Amino acid sequence: MAHGVDSPGRAQVGLKTARTDRWWLAPLRIGVILGFFIVYATIRIFMNKWYWVDEHHYLTPLYSPCVTESCVPGSSHLGTWFPKFPVFIPFSIITFAVLAGFRGTCYYYRKAGWRSLLLAPGACAVPEPHKKYSGESKFPLTGLNLHRYFFYGALVFGVLNVYDGVLAFHGTDGGFGIGLGTVIIWINLVMLWLYTLSCHACRHIVGGRLKNFSKHPWRYRYWTWVSKLNPKHGTFAMASLFTVILTDFYIMALSAGWFSDLRFLN
Amino acid sequence: MSYLAKFRVWRGDADGGGLKDYEVEVNEGEVVLDVIHRLQATQTPDMAVRWNCKAGKCGSCSAEINGMPKLLCMCRMNTFEEGETVTVTPMRTFPVIKDLVTDVSFNYQKAREIPAFKPPADLKPGEYRMQQVDVERSQEFRKCIECFLCQDTCHVIRDHEENKESFSGPRFLMRIAELDMHPLDAGDRQHAAQEQHGLGFCNITKCCTEVCPEHIKITDNALIPMKERVADRKYDPIVWLGNKIRRRA
Amino acid sequence: MTELERHTYDVVVIGAGGAGLRAAIEAREQGKRTAIVCKSLFGKAHTVMAEGGCAAAMGNANANDNWKTHYVDTMRGGKFLNNWRMAELHAQEAPDRVWELETYGALFDRTPDGKISQRNFGGHTYPRLAHVGDRTGLELIRTLQQKIVSLQQEDFEATGDYEANLKVYAECTVTELLKDGDAISGAFGYWRESGRFILFDAPAVILATGGVGKSFKVTSNSWEYTGDGHALAMRAGATLINMEFIQFHPTGMVWPPSVKGILVTESVRGDGGVLKNSEGKRFMFDYVPDVFRAQYAETEEEADRWYKDADNNRRPPELLPRDEVARAINSEVKAGRGTPHGGVFLDVSSRLPAEEIQRRLPSMYHQFKELADVDITAEPMEVGPTCHYVMGGVEVEPDTAQSSVKGLYAAGEVAGGMHGSNRLGGNSLSDLLVFGRRAGAGAAMYVESLGKDRPQISEADIDAAAAEALAPFELEGGENPYTIHQELQQSMNDLVGIIRKADEIEQALARLTEFRGRIAKMTVEGHRQFNPGWHLALDLRNMLTVSECVAKAALLREESRGGHTRDDFPGMNAEWRKLLLVCSLESDGDAVTVVKKDQIPMREDLLELFERTELAKYLTEEELPA
């Protein structure tokens, strides 16, 4: 039976969509980026190596914090909380779960995923291919409502990443030093924090949930501040995705000895 | 300054119809609605189109131009190339009545199902005191001109007729958010948003925001905050656990 | 017998703008089964176009304000021609009507202490307009619409039917009122969608159909403003007053051509915008008439100080009543000091920071950005006069809004008298609420008084109304209604427009007679289902009748006052102030007759609110208090 825009009673236009612009370009582009990241991240977490540059104390965010006995010496600067993991479990599994969870339940990535991976819809006023649709109203997708907990987790990991970032000012002779790696790590940190703080759950928690702002002037101020960042949440989401890949790749390359760090100071 | 433009306009009614080609004069500074009016006055006197204010304030002339939901009066002709064919169809989420006019009664039904503003019991007229910062959020949503373009573009009902029953659409979920954020509203709206009005169907793909002629940030400022408020009440395991324990005790 | 659907109601409200909805709320709350019939969708009425605000002397922004000052301002603005009782009721009740909206859920802009904020407007002594940015009309209509829905929800709780006591018939046009003897018995109309006929059996009908602007070429009014209520009332035997007074809003867009006439809110001037001619001069200082000399600034410096300190400075002349500003702009353009597109400059960009403009005038910002590609935070707007409002309308009893026909009520723009010869900005929205409510109450009371003895509808009247409505389909090969409409608009604009002369009005009358003949022979193509050509054909009859009233009254009134400017009689004449021109239809047909009628003298306590020197400018020697 005809459904969607062809349902009985509606104007029978005879075109799936009358859009003449290249509406498929945006979902295609985003889809390729997301696909690339998913493949890259999966490969990387199963590699279980090349995540630490001992000479300059660079730790890739994908393996931070490294807290199992499997971690290479030096990388577990927060201590070893867990014993050795069996080979088939990546030892950055917790990090990965929180980071993937935060991004997976993020309102921006949900939009990106629904549009480019599930084509529901691929673009506005373009019919989606699915026969049935219940959106996020049924289990397990109601789980997306747990975004706030991943946000709290991301905050904790964000702080740990800052600690990693401070350690990354490690000079070749053991004192203070700055290399291209340090710069990349800090650019990534800034993007990660902008992404985390501009989050919709964050906006809700700091003040959005209030009925009367005027009774909570400080929370109103925080809310106003987050509200200024929030419209760029999508931009920060994509930018931080790139900076994470860049940071990880750079550290992997150094660690694997493909090339060496460009040093600005010591 | 004037030229002959190529227009394809959907003509027909619920029994059927199709795109018809027209050549029609266009002058400087005109919008699509002017061209439709010229068609009416010179070639097709019985072509049906809804319109009122012609200034983007009443939300009557909603239709789809080159496949995108738009107000006919706010779409300037100079956004098209002179040789370009402009396709105009009625909104494709609602039953068609005739030509560019659709039956939008779905929206009025949904409006009715949302409990009205519940005034505070202890305040008389003239005693209401509200701060500007507290009314601003709801004021943004009250800019809505009810053109129903967001309802038209929303794939939840556009692509799934069967969802019309359980989903109120962006316009009316925003209305719930408006009341929930109203500083003096005494109603409780969060459970109903999810359970009766289908907030969970929304997958925040933001087409409603994209087509809104009033530039209301429907998704970011109304729907997502509403989802978070619902999460407070329904999906927060700590709150859930707290309630369980309290009920046991 | 004509095939149609029949409905029985206590009260039928025609028009779903502010006045209609407020009337319906009142009638329903008083326990009367009420129908609202409107030409557009529910919530699209022309009230949404009102931008600036709703005048009510709440005294939130300036505690000196009270209803008496509001009354005085209203009478002054209307050049003392107003029905003083209406102006009095309006000034007294407007604050309650605004506060009531808050209990329906309205969200007005606020003062720092949390009350409803009020803004300055032309002709108002104090900041008085409750507002929401520059979309106050939308707030009003949406609030009333939502109140209607809440009443329907109550009915649903009680009866299981949302529409048990209050129903909206949207996209439905009333073409004829029916009578039983001298009392209203119902209304006859058609569904725009299907073209099928519909009959309302109801003893009380409230007209709330708005104005007549679509008879003019350059207008801020939408297609609905075809004077339906005015014409229905006349055909039912009621009288119209003050039809010669048409308000030309001074600031309409002049470019691009397709949006010519669309309103630029007076708030632009209330918030600091100034008018300049092509030489860059703030010309309004040259156009302050004697009667207003004392209240308006003489230098730019004083005018600018007023925005900050209104108590110790006089107002800028840009904020003179609308008729004065419209005429001034008209003169500047005629003197060759206009802009390239035939208007003058309205500049707010050099007066306020860009952010402030976007916050205070958001819809103006978008309107210009999207329709004219002009950024009003960076460049001046081009504006010129546009037909905006008809002061004239159905002559009503002030307290109940009843017309001279039993069971027929009118409220809002379709009613006459309240605004005299010129309406102050902001007084329209408050007028809708005050007299909408009074009409609803008046109609409810009348229905109550009838008991079981309701007027009956005759089948012959139904058949006649149906035949009249179908007449445009009968002929073949006649003229297209669009052509006649365009010519009518052009004639009214050119010949009975902002500046009038006897010979031009006579020409207009001759043309109107010619149109009458052509309308009788016009042809409509297609069938009855959603056919805009047919709809226009039916509306054209109304426009023609109303235009005739305007032209005939304009020819008779040999003076200039408010919205009626005669080039051949440039001054105001106190003898004419005492006179109303009353239009009616001759009992046997279409011809409009206009007769003079004496005004009721103002009550003494109200007269005492004015200085004798001011009264002397308007009243005759005998009328002045001793």
UniProtKB/TrEMBL annotation, chain A:
Keywords assigned: Membrane, Transmembrane, Transmembrane helix
Transmembrane segments: 26-47, 87-109, 149-169, 175-195, 236-259
Domain of life (superkingdom): Bacteria
Protein name stated in the entry: Succinate dehydrogenase
Organism: Kribbella albertanoniae
Taxonomic path: Bacteria, Bacillati, Actinomycetota, Actinomycetes, Propionibacteriales
From TrEMBL, chain B:
Pathway stated in the Swiss-Prot or TrEMBL entry: Carbohydrate metabolism; tricarboxylic acid cycle
One GO BP: tricarboxylic acid cycle
Record bears the keyword Manganese: no
GO MF assignments: 2 iron, 2 sulfur cluster binding; 4 iron, 4 sulfur cluster binding; electron transfer activity; metal ion binding; oxidoreductase activity
InterPro entries: 2Fe-2S_ferredoxin-like_sf (IPR036010), 2Fe-2S_ferredoxin-type (IPR001041), 2Fe2S_fd_BS (IPR006058), 4Fe4S_Fe-S-bd (IPR017896), Beta-grasp_dom_sf (IPR012675), Helical_ferredxn (IPR009051), SDH/FRD_Iron-Sulfur (IPR050573), Succ_DH/fum_Rdtase_Fe-S (IPR004489)
Cofactor: [4Fe-4S] cluster; [2Fe-2S] cluster; [3Fe-4S] cluster
SUPFAM superfamilies recorded: 2Fe-2S ferredoxin-like, alpha-helical ferredoxin
Cellular component, GO, one term: plasma membrane
Gene3D superfamilies from the UniProt entry: 3.10.20.30, Alpha-helical ferredoxin
Keyword annotations of the record: 2Fe-2S, 4Fe-4S, Iron, Iron-sulfur, Metal-binding, Oxidoreductase
Domain 2Fe-2S ferredoxin-type: 5-92
Family: Belongs to the succinate dehydrogenase/fumarate reductase iron-sulfur protein family.
Name of this chain's protein: Succinate dehydrogenase/fumarate reductase iron-sulfur subunit
TrEMBL record, chain C:
Cofactor(s) the protein needs: FAD
Molecular-function GO terms, alphabetical: steroid dehydrogenase activity, acting on the CH-CH group of donors
Ranges for domain Fumarate reductase/succinate dehydrogenase flavoprotein-like C-terminal: 485-588
Listed Gene3D superfamilies: FAD/NAD(P)-binding domain (3.50.50.60), Fumarate reductase/succinate dehydrogenase flavoprotein-like, C-terminal domain (1.20.58.100), Succinate dehydrogenase/fumarate reductase flavoprotein, catalytic domain (3.90.700.10)
Superkingdom, natural source: Bacteria
Active site residues per record: 322 (proton acceptor)
Record protein name field: Fumarate reductase/succinate dehydrogenase flavoprotein subunit
Organism of origin: Kribbella albertanoniae
